[in-house]
Design a protein that fits this description.
By secondary structure, this protein is α+β, with helices and mostly antiparallel strands. The chain has one domain. It is 40% helix and 12% strand. Strands 1-4 form a two-stranded antiparallel sheet. The longest helix is centred in the N-terminal third of the chain and has 18 residues. The protein is rod-shaped.
Length: 67
């Protein structure tokens, strides 16, 4: 990284290539990161009463009733 910073002053093209290799090396060593972001959608009937949602337990079945 120091080499790329020094090269940026005298040879920007070579510096960009060095930064690209640094970026690839760091990315290849990085742990896998989950990019999954679930959408939690509940469809309810008009007959469902007492619906509550918990981020931990999702639909709180014990709080709901159906008429």
């Amino acid at each position: 990284m120091d080499q790329a910073a020094v090269q940026a002053v005298t040879d920007p093209t070579t510096s960009n290539e060095t930064w690209a290799s640094v970026d690839k090396a760091v990315t290849d060593q990085a742990p896998w990161v989950s990019m999954y972001n679930p959408k939690l959608i509940d469809f309810l009937s008009k007959r469902v009463k007492g619906y509550q949602f918990s981020p931990q337990w999702y639909f709180l079945l014990g709080q709901a009733s159906v008429k």
